[in-house]
Amino acid sequence: MSAGAKTRPRPRHAAPTLELKVRNMSFLLERLGRDCAPDQFVRELTVNAVQAVQRVGGGIVVWDHEPVHSRRFGASKLCVMDTGVGMTGPEMVEYINHLASSGGVQADDGNFGVGAKIAAATRNPAGIVYLSWKRGKGAMVWLWRNPATGQYGLKPLGRGKGEDAYWAPVPASLKPALIGEHGTVVVLLGATESEDTTLPPDGATDDSSRSLWLTRYLNSRFFELPEGVELKAREQWGTPGSRVRPARGMKHFLDLVSHAGGRVRLPDATAHWWILPEEVPQELADRYPSSGHVGALFQGELYELYTGRAGTAKLQGFGIAVGHQRVVLYVEPRAMRRRRVVPNTARTALLVNGRPLPWDEWAERFRENLPAEILALMEEVADARSARDRTESFKQRMKGLANLLFIGGSGGENLRRLFALEAPPQSRNGKGGDDVAATLPAPDPAAERSRAPGADADSRSPGADDARPEPPRDGRKRGESDREAPLPELDLDRLLELEVVWVTEAECGAVERAARYIPETNTLLMNRDFRVFAGYIERWREKYAGNPAAQREVEDLVREWLEQPLRELVIRSHFLRGTPGWSDEHIRALLSDESLTAVSLPCYLTEMRLRAAVAQRLGKLRPAAA
């Protein structure tokens, strides 16, 4: 080779790679299984069955009990059957005994090939029996946890060699009438062979109706089913009324019963909403989530479903302060070029670029664009006219005591800091006027120090003349009180504005608490079922038992004066924001459910105010005779 000849560089990574392996697959499987919800296996096996059915152009998926194994083990065994494409014995060995292996196309946003193995196998160590028919021929495998070694894998069934030893032909007695030339049955044996697997699993998300648990789970997990797929489940296990009924998903239910519905386009998602009727027929309420809740919608499935108190808090964050028991909200994230939306491995949550869903951002955007129908619902539920009247009465009382609202500092400086706002605050309907706290400017630390107690001329020590501030430049003499000087024209209504709504304890979401403050919408929810409030109202109504009109007037007055201290607490808390010693965490604690309850407990001043107010409002009208 000549001196000038060039040598070709050796390709990088030319040597074969030693593939990464898992030394303890059973440990990994059980660890991942603990991240799954107790009933997650129903979703995984249902989706596998639906995909098998789609590959033949449509068909049926049925959850039922499997009679042969139930008789063999003396306990009812749950199974799922489908009329899908089916599998041969070797195909089942390949797909079922390998993690991340699937008969479908694997993708981050589609089928992983791990769900049923993680969610179902770890909860059925006694075994999962797969029976499948393809082109008229049947085969079976038995996935279990070997009690001697603790390893998960296929149980030997056949007489062949190698992998053929782990599958066997299916006896004719095991073929259900539903299946013809192709289809699959998956039988769940449970933790032990004597376990009844038709019962809802311990810790399931909803076991309120045990005999309907499968139907309810399927309806709440799937928004809608693919075209040509029929899904059914047995109900009322072991009773004369037991039968197989369709599970159609939440879209069917919401389209059937909702009074109104629509969509709100968010920057990176679409919020679908529905308003439920006041009462849902019991037959439907047993089978579908029939009160307000929030969830994420992705590829026809529902994730991260917030129901009960969690749903109440979520809906309140979206600006639905009252009436939330009648609102269903599903947010559907949009996948874009640089924004990937995928489920986590356990399929319990959705991830956007590897991060949790941006619920707070979505809530803020939705609050700015609340649909008119939802606003009308809240007005209806809240009895808005009486609430506005009480708000106006409160404002008139407090305007005469404006300077007493201040906490430290001078009156003029406090007002300038609180009300000299550049833009109107954002309200729950996006049109301005409610959320004072959100727009308060941060105080100037130097100004705060100059207003601190003990910093004025009257409290200065004799040797501190050189530290005195320059004389005021507005013509006032040093030491002249701000309260004696004219205040600038400022909007007191801005500070005193607070939406107060009386709701049930369930709507309030604060059990055995007086109230809940929602800062996002500047709303105070008063718990009308709280024992202290209910006692006041009942006692004063009894005083005028013979006069219904007077009872309504009295009840309105009682509510007005029960609101008074809580309104003051919320409004005066604004003066503490951003001041030394008061972080955002401190303000949240000050306005917590427990703090609002503590303010509601003293009774002497409230009772005195009520007596005077009732006497003034009702005049000579006498209470009912004792």
User: In this structure, how is the largest beta sheet organized?
Assistant: 9 strands, mixed
Distance between the amino and carboxyl termini: 122 Å
Name the poorly predicted regions: 105-113, 420-488
Kindly give the count of domains. Answer: 3
Q: Per the principal axes of the C-alpha atoms, what is the gross shape?
A: elongated
CATH superfamily of the largest domain: Histidine kinase-like ATPase, C-terminal domain
CATH architecture descriptor name of the largest domain = 2-Layer Sandwich
**What percentage of the residues does DSSP assign to strands (E)?**
15-25%
**CATH topology tier name of the largest domain:** Heat Shock Protein 90
Average pLDDT, rounded to a whole number, is 81
The beta-strand count equals 20
Please bin the fraction of helical residues. 25-40%
Commentary on this structure:
The chain is an alpha+beta fold and 626 residues long. The chain folds into 3 domains: 25-246, Histidine kinase-like ATPase, C-terminal domain (Heat Shock Protein 90, 2-Layer Sandwich); 250-379, Ribosomal Protein S5, domain 2 (2-Layer Sandwich), CATH 3.30.230; 383-456 and 483-626, no CATH class. Helix content is 33%, strand content 17%. The chain contains 21 helices and 20 strands. Strands 1, 2, 3, 4, 5, 6, 7, 8 and 9 form a 9-stranded mixed beta sheet that branches. Helix 12 (384-399) crosses helix 18 and helix 17 (531-543) runs antiparallel to helix 18 (548-573). The termini are far apart.
